[in-house]
């Protein structure tokens, strides 16, 4: 497989970054009118249905789901239900851009978790340096929340970070699905997580008693589920198949700028200098973790 990045692949990657950045934008709109758990349930259920339509019974999906339903259930909890709920609760008080920046620490937590839970992904000096820089950026972002003068409470700042930690566990746990067709893994985890999120939202929010939200909120929910979840998974797997998982991971650097841009243009959000500084440190940490920039600099002329 040719894992080089050509113009077409870069285009797909940038599009994916815009779409996943859009998930924070759409969520920020929706959580103003829809309770977080109900929003999680709607996102997962609609996305699961869309992916089942896309797969259309191919890849022996139903046999795989039946045989591995427990594993899909665990993956659905740590990769969908828990992190989505944490992000949406956080976004009741946070803008799209700041939530996306905090959640961009996912690769840092993945590296730290994999070091303890796997035997083949141990920390190197470069990984340690990248983690330290990224964590410093996180501290810069969360620090003001400790003081009472911060606009965003500490819990709201911590929730997207905890979601990133959950994604880190999911990334490590997801290695056991190697060999399972990627669309099946996506549909399986979304199906399992829907079955968990739906009763939780029914018990907690009594959605039948809620006021029907405005049209723009309904459209944001559809975009969150169909565009930023179902279609994004398909696009992500396409990038992996053409450019490899390592190149696909570059999307982590593209999501926060996308969310910030959408928040500034349409929601009137603004980031402070310290928030830009925290984003820069996290981005630099991710570049160090990626390692390719360092190898390129060290490559003999």
UniProtKB/TrEMBL annotation:
Keyword set includes Membrane: yes
Localisation per UniProt entry: Membrane
Primary location: membrane
EamA domain residues: 12-142, 155-288
GO cellular component: membrane
Membrane topology recorded in Swiss-Prot or TrEMBL: Multi-pass membrane protein
Keywords: Membrane, Transmembrane, Transmembrane helix
Transmembrane segments: 7-31, 37-57, 69-89, 95-116, 128-146, 152-170, 182-203, 215-236, 248-267, 273-289
Domain of life assignment: Bacteria
Protein name, entry field: Threonine/homoserine efflux transporter RhtA
Organism from which the protein derives: Rhizobium aethiopicum
The organism's taxonomic lineage, starting at the top: Bacteria, Pseudomonadati, Pseudomonadota, Alphaproteobacteria, Hyphomicrobiales
């Amino acid at each position: 497989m040719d894992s080089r990045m050509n113009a077409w692949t870069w285009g797909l990657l940038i599009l994916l970054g815009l779409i996943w950045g859009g998930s924070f934008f759409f969520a920020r709109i929706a959580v103003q009118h829809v309770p977080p758990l109900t929003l999680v349930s709607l996102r997962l259920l609609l996305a699961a249905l869309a992916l089942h339509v896309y797969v259309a019974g191919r890849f022996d999906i139903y046999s795989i789901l039946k045989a591995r339903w427990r594993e899909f259930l665990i993956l659905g909890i740590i990769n969908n239900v828990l992190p989505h709920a944490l992000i949406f609760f956080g976004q009741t008080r946070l803008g799209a851009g700041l939530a996306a920046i905090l959640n961009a620490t996912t690769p840092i937590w993945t590296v730290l978790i994999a070091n303890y839970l796997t035997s083949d992904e141990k920390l190197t000096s470069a990984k340690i340096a990248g983690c330290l820089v990224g964590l410093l950026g996180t501290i810069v972002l969360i620090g003001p929340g400790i003081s009472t003068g911060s606009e965003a409470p500490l819990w709201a700042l911590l929730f997207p970070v905890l979601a990133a930690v959950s994604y880190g566990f999911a990334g490590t746990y997801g290695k056991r699905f190697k060999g399972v067709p990627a669309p099946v893994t996506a549909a399986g985890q979304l199906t399992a997580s829907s079955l968990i999120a739906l009763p939780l939202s029914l018990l907690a929010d009594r959605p039948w008693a809620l006021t029907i939200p405005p049209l723009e909120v309904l459209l944001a929910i559809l975009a969150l589920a169909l565009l930023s979840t179902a279609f994004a998974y398909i696009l992500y797997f396409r990038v992996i198949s053409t450019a490899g998982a390592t190149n696909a991971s570059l999307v982590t650097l593209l999501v926060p700028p996308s969310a910030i841009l959408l928040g500034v243009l349409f929601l009137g959000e603004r980031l402070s200098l310290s928030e830009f500084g925290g984003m820069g440190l996290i981005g630099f940490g991710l570049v160090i973790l990626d390692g390719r920039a360092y190898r390129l600099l060290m490559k003999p002329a």
